[in-house]
């Protein structure tokens, strides 16, 4: 196979093409690559305005397509591929991104924009090298993009419509197919033709050469990727032998930069590509490869150093209600915003510019206006507003986090330092004022409302007739549940101080009868009767001892057939990968006695009360982890010591993780639009298979209850 020695390196690997595109399949099979096709379920809905350049959008989408497939295969099908290839093709004209047209009118709109002009076609490609270590998926991601310039002739309306009626535009970016009828519209092409058709084969082969043959990497870098490595150099690569390591050999050294940056830091291997390793820790101080990347900036560390500035800019803009002003009146000049909100012009201008650079605002010659994300999530009255949680983050979490050092030294919460108050009873002591109470409830409402759909639909709960949401606060989840399950009646059970303030948060125009509010303390008072008990973002507030008290109370009132549903962020078992959840655990340290836990830890807690059979799903949105624990009564005859060991082993084998993205999950009994921002506003580049929630469904059998520990 002299012509494709580089591709020969993939012969012995399980290669997966994460794409339904027949063009990509054809391009790759034409050169003899053997691969399995697993189309990605990732929906191409990333917020375009949050990317500074169109190709970044294509690369990120390609990456997300590939990540979704890798994770689904690993978790759901328990088959870890060796290599996953994802790609995304977009057309860019006048700074706008054009994808596939949704209908003929859309195709006409796109083709009219391209008419008589030059545009760029970008294909982003992600190559994931995967391996499974201790049942944990580890990946190294290499991504790159290719740009091809295409010019359309001046075309008549009649011709455009004739072309549209041919049906060809509909599944193609920009609404045309250069390889078929659409070729007649094109005056010239500068660059890789196959890139326009959907896959930049030449660049892909160069990238493989860099990955699989380190010596060639230098060649390629020196030549800035403008030629294929010499075939002679690759004689030994076409032998089809499998790799000795899980990833291409040179990679570890290429991961390090002069600062010793490692793990998920990006290392640019050529002008328009990067390589990132997920789930890996490369030892700091390893000097291999440092010299070649010594001039690189430690971008990951710099980003972390500055992260608080971006957060604070968002907090202050929210606090000043700038997004509300711009929604009503935008676009507005800085001076007008400053006049409206009563701030300085120079300070406001800097804040608005910073927000625009962060993708929260758009800046044009007319002034500043909200992006779609800002309109949806940052205005204070939007259906999916995060405003309440942002204000809570600014006013409450920020001062607490300022005392993180003390929290770490002392191992305890810092309410006394941050606010000069004890936190033993949040509502009676710290939350003494009506305003602060409302703010806290608004924060909880923001998150609960935004994530309720995924919590409600993660599993089919239609068999339950009644549910009790313990600590259900404003009833956001309860209202979502009764929407999804019309036969369900939900009781929200929370402290009297909370229940007294819920009226403000009730949905207007919705039939609220199936939701009732009952006040009480779930540690002290009798629990309302229900088939299903829900604990959403409750267990993480408490230490194990208190959780046992609560679970035993629930267990005591459950009849056979009853169940428990728990929603929480979930850490990975080794507690090293899911930084969002790990940071949330620090968040619990500074303000509560609780913490975030891993799936195994939740399962162990529940098992003490007879709960077994765990399933975990990844939602892909803010509350990413969904777990279901089938809970059954166990006999009391287990020998304690032995059972600890056996349990530990069984725990890791007994729960099943499933990819569950808001975009791919179809509620089996009711189709619903996913409400959540799949991509966190400020961190689209780091969206990994990381956070967050677990849902636990625990069912009773009539076997006798196990003894309490
Ligand atoms: C511009 C252009 C695009 N295209 C195609 C390539 C891609 O298949 C498609 C762009 O859509 P993509 O979203 O990149 O790919 P896809 O939806 O076909 O497949 P998947 O998401 O599963 O990977 O447009 C052509 O075939 N010819 C062209 O001239």
UniProtKB/TrEMBL annotation:
Gene3D superfamilies found in the cross-reference section: 3.90.950.10, Vaccinia Virus protein VP39, Winged helix-like DNA-binding domain superfamily/Winged helix DNA-binding domain
Domain O-methyltransferase dimerisation: 302-380
GO BP terms, alphabetized: methylation
NCBIfam families: maf (TIGR00172)
Cofactor entry: a divalent metal cation
Gene Ontology molecular function: any one: nucleoside triphosphate diphosphatase activity
Quaternary structure and partners: Homodimer.
Ranges for domain O-methyltransferase C-terminal: 401-611
Name recorded for this polypeptide: ASML protein
Keywords for this protein: Hydrolase, Methyltransferase, S-adenosyl-L-methionine, Transferase
Alphabetized PANTHER family for the sequence: BIFUNCTIONAL DTTP/UTP PYROPHOSPHATASE/METHYLTRANSFERASE PROTEIN-RELATED, BIFUNCTIONAL DTTP_UTP PYROPHOSPHATASE_METHYLTRANSFERASE PROTEIN-RELATED
């Amino acid at each position: 196979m002299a012509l494709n020695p580089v591709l020969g390196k993939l012969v012995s690997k399980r290669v997966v093409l994460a794409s339904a595109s027949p063009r990509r399949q054809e391009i790759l099979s034409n050169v003899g690559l053997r691969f399995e096709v697993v189309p990605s379920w990732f929906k191409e809905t990333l917020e375009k305005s949050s990317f500074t350049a169109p190709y970044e959008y294509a690369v990120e989408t390609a990456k997300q397509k590939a990540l979704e497939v890798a994770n689904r295969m690993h978790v759901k099908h328990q088959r870890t591929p060796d290599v996953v290839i994802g790609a995304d093709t977009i057309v860019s004209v006048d700074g706008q991104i054009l994808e596939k047209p949704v209908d003929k009118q859309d195709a006409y709109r796109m083709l009219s924009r391209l008419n008589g002009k030059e545009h760029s076609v970008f294909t982003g490609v992600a190559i994931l090298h995967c391996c499974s270590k201790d049942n944990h998926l580890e990946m190294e991601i290499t991504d790159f993009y290719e740009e091809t310039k295409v010019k359309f002739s001046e075309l008549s309306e009649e011709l455009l419509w004739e072309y549209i009626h041919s049906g060809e535009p509909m599944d193609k970016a920009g609404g045309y197919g250069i390889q078929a009828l659409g070729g007649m519209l094109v005056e010239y092409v500068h660059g890789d033709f196959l890139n326009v058709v959907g896959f930049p084969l030449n660049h892909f082969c160069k990238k493989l050469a860099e990955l699989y043959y380190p010596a060639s990497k230098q060649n390629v870098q020196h030549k800035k990727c403008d030629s294929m490595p010499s075939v002679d150099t690759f004689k030994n690569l076409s032998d089809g032998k499998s790799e000795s390591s899980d990833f291409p050999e040179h990679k570890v050294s290429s991961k390090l930069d002069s600062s010793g940056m490692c793990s998920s830091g990006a290392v640019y291997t050529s002008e328009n590509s990067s390589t990132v390793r997920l789930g890996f820790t490369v030892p700091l101080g390893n000097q291999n490869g440092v010299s070649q990347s010594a001039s690189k900036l430690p971008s990951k560390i710099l980003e972390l150093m500055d992260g608080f500035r971006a957060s604070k800019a968002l907090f202050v803009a929210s606090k000043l209600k700038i997004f509300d002003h711009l929604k009503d009146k935008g676009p507005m000049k800085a001076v007008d915003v400053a006049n409206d909100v009563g701030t300085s012009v120079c300070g406001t201008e800097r804040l608005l510019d910073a927000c625009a650079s962060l993708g929260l605002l758009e800046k044009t010659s007319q002034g500043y206006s909200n992006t779609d994300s800002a309109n949806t999530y940052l205005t204070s009255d939007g259906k999916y507003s995060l405003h309440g949680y942002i204000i809570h983050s600014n006013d409450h979490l920020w001062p607490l986090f300022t005392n993180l050092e003390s929290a770490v030294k002392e191992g305890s919460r810092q309410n006394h330092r941050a606010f000069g108050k004890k936190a033993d009873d949040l509502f009676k002591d710290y939350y003494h004022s009506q305003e602060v109470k409302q703010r806290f409830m608004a924060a909880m409402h923001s998150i609960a409302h935004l994530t309720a759909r995924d919590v409600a639909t993660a599993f089919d709960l239609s068999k339950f007739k009644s549910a009790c949401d313990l600590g259900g606060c404003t009833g956001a989840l309860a209202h979502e549940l009764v929407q999804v399950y019309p036969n369900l009646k939900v009781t929200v059970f929370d402290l009297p101080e909370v229940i007294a303030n819920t009226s403000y948060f009730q949905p207007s125009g919705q039939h609220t009868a199936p939701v009732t509010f009952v006040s009480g303390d779930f540690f002290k008072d009798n629990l309302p009767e229900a088939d299903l008990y829900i604990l959403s973002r409750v267990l993480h507030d408490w230490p194990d001892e208190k959780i046992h008290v609560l679970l035993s109370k629930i267990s005591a009132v459950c009849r056979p057939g009853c169940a428990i549903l728990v929603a929480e962020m979930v850490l990975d078992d080794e507690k090293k990968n899911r930084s969002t959840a790990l940071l949330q655990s620090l968040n619990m340290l500074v303000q509560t006695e609780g913490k975030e836990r891993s799936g195994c830890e939740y399962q162990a807690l529940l098992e003490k009360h007879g709960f077994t059979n765990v399933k975990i799903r990844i939602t892909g949105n803010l509350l990413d982890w969904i777990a279901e624990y089938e809970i059954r009564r166990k006999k009391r005859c287990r020998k304690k010591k032995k059972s600890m060991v056996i349990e530990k082993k069984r725990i890791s084998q007994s729960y099943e993780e499933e990819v569950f993205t808001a975009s791919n999950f179809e509620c089996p009994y009711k189709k619903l639009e996913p409400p959540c921002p799949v991509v966190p506003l400020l961190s689209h580049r780091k969206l990994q298979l990381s956070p967050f929630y677990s849902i636990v469904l625990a069912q009773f059998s009539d076997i006798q209850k196990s003894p309490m520990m």
